[in-house]
Amino acid sequence: MIGRTRDLTRRTALGIGAALGVSTFLPTGSQAQGDDFGPESHGMSVFGDLKYPANFPHFDYVNPVAPKGGEIALQVSSVGGNQTFETFDTLNMFSHKGNGAAGMGLIFDSLMVGSSDESDSLYGLVARSVRASADGLTYRFALRPEARFHDGSPLRAEDVVFSLALLKSAKAHASYRLLLDKITDARALDPLTVEFSFAKGRSREMPQIAATLPIFSKAYYTASDFEAATLTSPLGSGGYKVERVDQGRSIAFRRVSDYWAKDLPVSIGQGNFDVIRYEYFRDREAAFQAFTAGAFSFREEFTSVIWSTRYDFPAAKDGRVKRDVMPDARPSGTQGWFINTRRDKFKDARVREAIGLCFDFEWTNKNLMYALYKRTNSYFENSGLRAEGKPPAEEKVLLEGLGMKLPAEVFDEPYSAPVSDGSGQDRNVLRKAVELLNLAGCKRGADGKIRLPDGQPLTIEFLEGDNALNRHTTGFVNNLRLIGIEAAIRVIDPAQFARRRQDFDFDIVMQRYTMSLTPGEGLRLIFGSAAAKTVGSRNLAGVADPAIDAMIERIIAAKTREEMTVATRCLDRLLRAGRYWVSAWYSGEHKIAYWDMFGMPGPIPPLAGSTEGAIAALWWYDAEKARKIGK
Fold this sequence. Notes:
alpha+beta
């Protein structure tokens, strides 16, 4: 099954944000039966009814009769601005060892999967139904007897139990242990029934996290080292399996023609390509040149100069390559330069704000990005979760209810970066940066360099894994130097970059996190104090604030969407007041380019987990179109 499956990989769904389903309380109108469990349900939903009834034939956004066949080739690089993945050395994406290959989530099934036109619903895949106890602390999943692994062995409840135990063990990446902490037990009641238990006070999304965990074969991993970095494909049960691997360069997956779940409503119209191939590139220019030559067939364009000036190659001119712009209804994500507050020189929020003032977005957008972007200010930009204006009564009550001393700014307009004059060196803005440094006890020495209160020079190294953002960062660095801060860009190889980021061995790094319309448990992994102390976590800035921790818990515990929205807007205020990042930019649309040999059911679904994932799941190979363009 591919599409919006919320694969729990180190790269994507460790930031899982969707919340639970059948819920902490029983669905409206249901009554606990004699065994204290509610009725069976074909799905799980957080704050309301499921869109699709029990007998739904397929998701609305698919073509149920899409033909099967052909290949789609996708690129893997740091083009999306998320992380740097220009190579891979293992097919194990669950261990802390190595840099995992793209697409490995295609081979694993889970109990349930999400739809791409709802923000917080799951429907049965391996599980045909789910029941919740009256107190919401126990969930039972009834498994489909036809579920099986690629070697033909049956997928049973003991495999589900075994999978959870592995992911909670020291053999798995530390982020899984943080994520799954509130799942206290899993039991196989019989071969086709698995029961999960959750800790009191668990977040509403924990049952949903349990339902979307990858399911491993107990027999396979009893004989294989789960922790090892390896280029041997593990045994899975999903709609694809690994076909060929060229280490560090490409990986291809072949559709399983007799996939056990191919006729289920959650699968129909999806997984149409015989082969899904990922090609790796070490830089954006190499990736673009390969696309123009037809080495891969689809790309989402994130580079404004390329989108605006470079689609004049022969295939684009004669129509063999098409371009399109599709709306993106998801929160835009938290893209920016994250400042490592674990380092003493960045402890003072005024210092961090001064650093941020040296980035001139207006100049950068106009001169380097063809004015295609907007400034990101909120951690939940492009969504109704964004804090705006002074906090209304319900937000003020929640903030005051924390019983903690909070920055006065939290009760005023949320922080937004100032709009510059677009000159690249707005003197008024830079003057404000110097004033903030002075207030923080920093002084300019006789050599013109800014020194911290302890007398040490304030130095900043921007760590990067490729040259893609050098032009954007250079103007930033020049302004920092202009006010006396010793700043420099350091580009290192991807493997070293990944290690240093994992060890928090950096001053500032660029990162983009994708946020959910139903944020929850994943917020702990990005902004929680425990994650700040966990090597390899996604809390790059080292955010460790009890008020933020408390607000995250309010979000997780919210019983209505209104409560969750209020708490998330309060979290946005707290984070923005902390000056943990220098916000970058966003675009509320997908800019895509592709060789004209595909059919498609319509626009990318509004809540698709990723563009590439949605395309690989929903499009299909059109043999007649391919013939016309010589493909």
